[in-house]
Amino acid sequence: MPQQQDIINQVVDRVNDFNRRIRDLEEKIRNLSARVNTLDDTLMNKTSSNKDDIQEVEDRMGEMSDRIANIEVDVKNINREKRKYVTSQELEEVENYMDLMNPINSSFMTESEVEEMIEDKLEEIAEEKKQRGSRDQNPDRTTS
Q: Residue 17 above 90 pLDDT?
């Protein structure tokens, strides 16, 4: 019987060892399960937070798109209004015309002054013709 007792003791030791190992494995499984649950909760929180952030970005993008559309409309209105105004080049042209027409800076001639000037010029031309005619009749004269 001692041999049976040894066998029984060995079996009991093995069963106790198996029980201890099973408890260790069960503890490890509980720890792993707790870690998985913690990771799952963290992942869910992060996913929710990311969804909120993405929604906020989408909302802001929508607002920005609306603001850009409003700015485009404003720019078109400004350009339309800008066409109504005078450019600096056009303003300079008007200033030049005004300077030309300014009676203080410019001198205008009266009709009688113009007629007198024409008559003087006609007399000069007639005088030149006479001088040429007299030279043609006197070939002895040399021109200087």
A: yes
